[in-house]
Specification:
Layout (H helix, E strand, L loop, with lengths): L1 E4 L6 H15 L4 H9 L4 E7 L5 E11 L3 E10 L8 H15 L5 E9 L3 H9 L3 E12 L14 E4 L5 H12 L10 H9 L8 E5 L5 E14 L2 E13 L8 H15 L4 E7 L6 H7 L3 E12 L1
Parallel strand pairs: 4-5, 10-11
Antiparallel strand pairs: 1-2, 2-3, 3-4, 5-12, 6-11, 6-12, 7-8, 8-9, 9-10
Length: 307
């Protein structure tokens, strides 16, 4: 078995073929990796495994999150079903560990990975290699065949779309809204600016709630993405982020923004919307999503390993 770095764009077609085989076998959603291969080549690491005939047998992706005290390598790996048990799992893990440790200066290092709850063989491998399960996440969906209810905006507050002029204040709002969330890392204004310049950015589903004093109180961002869910290729709406400043919680701002974005997604032709949420979200997000019609259909398990 040969292991090497991905050569782009030459390897893209073969990787795409491998991911489609993996999807056929277990319907795991792999579109985020295709997006990373096309968009994030400068900030991601990719590795492939090939047999002696040059056929791609495995694929791994590694992305780094860093703070002043921690380097976290977020890694994923996928194998052709016929390549199971040939040592690629161990090779992918060794590669991810070595690459993450090479990032280290005076910071602690760890690996993160996650998978759907119906993959016991993967969890057995992770636990046998000193990973610890720490969290559950739900993927929730809502049909948009019927028009969602009108949002009820609290008195004195207004809803509008975000602009480039909001970036600094939006960054502060995002970081304050998520600072108590598990494993949440602050975003920078540069990252937010790059997102809003992406060709696929849709300003009409990037919403802000403005307080009576003119400050930003809440936000809800969404996107329209091709996805493979439940074995089907489709284009869906995805709620990427929803957060409210602690001083403005309990007023219904998050619900109002969410309903407005669902209505806009439906007007744009989407027939369903998805959202991912921490099962133990400290602000009661699961209850909010259920109250507007979202239902859980996937559970994902998060694992960590200290290096």
């Amino acid at each position: 078995m040969i292991s090497r770095l991905v050569l782009l764009p030459d390897d893209f077609v073969r990787i795409d073929e491998l991911l489609r085989i993996c999807e056929t076998a277990d319907t795991v959603d792999l579109d985020l990796h295709r997006h990373a291969l096309q968009k994030n080549q400068a900030t991601e690491r990719f590795q492939v495994w090939l047999d002696d005939a040059g056929n791609m047998q495995g694929f791994a992706r590694l992305h780094f999150n860093e703070t002043e005290s921690l380097t976290e390598g977020r890694y994923w790996y996928y194998l052709r079903p016929t390549a199971m048990g040939q040592g690629i799992e161990a090779s992918a893990l060794q590669w991810a560990e070595q690459e993450t440790l090479q990032q280290r200066t005076d910071r602690a290092c760890r690996l993160f990975t996650a998978s759907r709850a119906d993959h016991p063989a993967r969890f057995q491998f992770l636990e046998a290699n000193n990973f610890t399960r720490e969290r559950y996440f739900f993927t929730m969906k809502r049909a948009l065949h019927e028009i969602p209810p009108d949002p009820e905006v609290p008195s004195g507050y207004t809803i509008r779309t975000a602009t480039l002029a909001d970036i600094e204040d939006f960054t502060d709002l995002h970081n304050v809204a998520f600072r108590e969330h598990w494993n949440s890392l602050p975003i920078t204004s540069e990252e937010l600016h790059a997102e809003k310049l992406d060709p696929n950015y849709r300003p009409e589903i990037d919403l802000l709630a403005v307080a009576p004093d003119g400050t930003l109180a809440s936000f809800c961002t969404a996107s329209i993405e091709p996805m493979k869910r439940e074995g089907n290729d489709e284009v869906v709406g995805f709620i990427d982020g929803l957060g409210t400043h602690p001083l403005h919680r309990g007023l219904g701002l998050g619900r109002a923004l969410l309903l407005q974005n669902l209505r806009t997604l439906r007007a744009l032709g989407m027939i369903k919307a998805y959202i991912s949420v921490d099962a133990a979200n400290p602000t009661g997000a699961v209850r909010l999503y259920e109250s507007v019609g979202f239902q859980t259909f996937e559970t994902w398990l998060s694992y960590f390993k200290s290096l």
